[in-house]
Write a structure and sequence with these properties.
- Keywords: Membrane, Transmembrane, Transmembrane helix.
- It comes from Candidatus Dojkabacteria bacterium.
- It holds the Pfam family Gmad2.
- About 20% of the residues lie in helices and about 30% in strands.
- By secondary structure, it is an alpha+beta fold.
- The N and C termini lie far apart (about 55 Å).
- About 25% of the residues are buried.
Length: about 250
């Protein structure tokens, strides 16, 4: 009898321990699934992403934006001569792409100059004519606002590209050529269920377009092939897969 007790008691203890652990993790998963705000996510001490506005991510891949933080407007990109407000460097883009900024009047000829989209090897993907905004006067030494809409095929795009702004050169003299380049990333993954992929590097999945400060983090690349869609609680978020979780873990190290 004593031998049986020696065997049975540890087994009973292990059994109750497994039941307790199962109930604990079951309750934990249930509680996590009921999180529906940034504050609740923070209370659970889940990681807060180092972006603006701050976002908290739950283990099941949902993200919650801190709505108490006022949005910021993107700052112009300082280049040697022109300022490009949209897109910014390493920003995710898709067709049609709205481009705007400012350039000195001598960049224009008859109120326009050219912008070209290429791959990283310089092969042209598409181009468009940049014009002054609302017919602004271009015969000036001051900065002139410009705009353009660039359309390109979405099939078989590379991961990254370059926007090349070419100064108008009616003389055709090579010495008068001038250009500015901005690296961009192609947004090849579409959001579902009315969700929006936002942020300067396409790292935010939410119900509305979110503006961030464009400070790049290495783990943003993990979202390039992730799916942005509504989660089980009805909120927009990145669907957590084994691949995404592994990528985030590796980049966070």
């Amino acid at each position: 009898m004593r031998k049986y007790l020696i065997v049975i008691i540890p087994l009973v203890f292990i059994g109750f321990s497994l039941i307790f652990v199962g109930l604990y993790y079951g309750y934990r998963q249930f509680s996590i699934s009921r999180i529906d705000s940034f504050d609740e996510c923070v209370e659970w001490k889940f990681p807060i992403m180092d972006i603006y506005p701050p976002q908290c991510m739950t283990p099941d891949g949902r993200t919650f934006v801190d709505t108490s933080v006022p949005p910021v407007s993107p700052l112009p990109l300082p280049t040697s001569e022109i300022q490009v407000y949209n897109p910014l460097p390493d920003q995710y883009i898709q067709s049609p792409l709205d481009i705007n900024g400012e350039a000195p009047g001598n960049w224009f000829w008859e109120g326009s100059f050219r912008v070209i989209l290429t791959d990283i090897d310089g092969n042209e993907i598409s181009s468009a004519i940049v014009t002054t905004t609302d017919g602004a006067e271009w015969m000036t030494e001051e900065s002139v606002p410009f705009e353009a809409t660039l359309e390109f095929e979405s099939e078989n795009l590379p991961d990254t590209g370059i926007l090349v702004f070419e100064k108008a050169n009616p003389s055709a003299l090579p010495i008068m050529d001038k250009k500015e380049e901005i690296p961009v990333i192609f947004k090849t993954k579409e959001a579902k269920d009315g969700c929006v992929i936002g942020g300067c590097s396409g790292q935010v999945c939410s119900d509305e377009d979110v503006i961030t400060d464009c400070a790049y983090r290495e783990y943003y690349v993990c979202y390039a092939n992730a799916q942005c869609e509504r989660q089980i609680n009805g909120e927009c978020g990145w669907t957590m897969t084994n691949e995404l979780q592994q990528c985030l873990s590796e980049k966070a190290e």
